[in-house]
Each structure stands twice: as structure tokens, then as C-alpha cells.
Amino acid sequence: MNHKKYKTVIVASESSALYTTKRILMEAKKLKYPSIWINPYEYMLNPTTLSQNNKFGLYFHRTTGIRYDDFDLLVSKQHELLGYKISNSLESLKSFRDKTDQALFLHQHGLSPIKTISYRGLLNEKCWESISQLSSNEKFIIKMARGNQGIGVNLVNGLSSLKSFLETFHALKDQKFIIQPFIEHKKEWRVFVIKNEIAGIIERTIEKEDFRGNAKRSEGRVIKKLSADIEAEVLRGADLSGLDYCGVDIMTDKKNFYFLEMNPVPGFEQLEELSGLNIARELLCRI
Questions:
Q1: Do the bridges between strand 8-12 and strand 35-38 make them parallel or antiparallel, or are there none, so unpaired?
Q2: If DSSP codes are grouped into helix, strand and coil, which group holds residue 267?
Q3: Which of 100, 202, 206, 264 could join 220 in a cystine, given CB atoms 3.0 to 4.6 angstroms apart?
Q4: What's the pLDDT band for 158 if we cut at 50, 70, 90?
């Protein structure tokens, strides 16, 4: 492969000190790619530059949209019009940065989704009946629509607590969340996929004091593979997503496995540290 076809590598993130940002820039330098970092939330859009000669480059969009401000997507769009390849694509980024959109995608394609409800307005009787029937053990997970790294994930015990929680959010005029049943489980897996191939798998043991399975909170180890059926579904989901690379989070209970999330801006610090793999270089060379 001719890795010199791209003149410049840009990493767009909110901090140049982030592990993934530093690693991509480091590997780009080793490959002798000119590379720069930008913060898209501290950036001036200038459409007049579109009349200039198009450049060629690879643009890593590394912001999650947790701000509920899509200015970062506009910055990526301008670079796309200048001739940069955006990874992941803008269409895919828009589809997967919101957990409500993700839930619709998983259900649409039958990708072992967890039952999910999102709503707006007053908690009327019909809505409450549907929500209360989500969980037989009366334990519920509420996730902010654009949470990241486990932030904005809440475990709610009991119907009375859940109802109070939902009524409070309505009073605050902030209903940007999804509701799911809490499923008892002891392990989760993060499957890192690049160009529809599995690059690495982290198995995480869920600690009793934290139910979120986030890399910063739970112990992890590298495993070589999952069952053939589960890996096939993970790759099917990645293929349907249109993402160049992603982190697919899955879990199992005693009977079934479930897709938790398809992350279009996945970190890979834990995977590199535990496996010794050079994920940053893989991303640069394979995308």
C-alpha cells in the first residue's frame, strides 16, 4: 500500500494531551506524514478557502458531541470539501453519536439490542406503563443521549425512584436520555474493529461498586476471540454502520448476548497497553 498518498494527517480533538491524539500524531510522525492537531471547538470556519486548490489528507474526527454542539461536524465538513478523508465518515458520525439513534439502528437490524425507551413530554399513564414493564427486577439504567466514558449513566432502583427521577428531568426541561432495564452480568467485552476486521478484544470484569464497565473503572484483559456467532454479529454490525473503525461493546447474561454500544470515537489506550498492539499505526495504514 502506498501510504504517501495522503499529504497531511489532522487529529481533531478537544485536547492535544489525550492519549489517542498523542498516539496517532506520534505514529504519523514515524511514517513521515505531516501531522497537526486542532480543537474544532476553538476554530474559525472560513468557507472562502473552498475556492483554493484541494488538499489531500486524512482527518481523524475525535470529538463525541457530548457538548450537544455539532460545530465540530461543520469543521469536519469543511475539511471534507477541501479534499480530506474524514474518519469516521460524517454520515456515520451523525448516526452514532446519539444513543437514541444507536438504539434505533440496533433494533432496525436485529443486532441483539437491549429494550430501550426514549420519550418527550409529560410522563403520562401509557408511557409509564411501558417504562415500568422494561425491567422485571425493577432496576433501570438511564443513559444521557451523548454520554461518554460512563459519564451520565445512572442505575435507578425501584419504580418510585425511577418515577421521581423522570419527573425531575421533565421539570428541568432536559429529557435527552434513554431508559433501559438493568441486566445482571459480570463481564463485558470491547471489540475494536478496523475496516470490518477485529483488531483486538478486551474482556472486562464488572466491579461490584461500578456497573458501567468503563475502561477506567474496570479491570480488563486481552482475549484472542469470542464465539464465532458473536464475532459474526459484531462484524455484521460494523459493516452495516459504515464506520471505518469503532469500538463495539457487548455483554452476556445467563442466556443471551447484547449490543451495548457502537462507539464511533473509541479510545484504545487500554487495548494498546494490555496487548502491545500498535493500534494507532493500524488506523493510519489501514484507513
A1: parallel
A2: coil
A3: 202
A4: very high
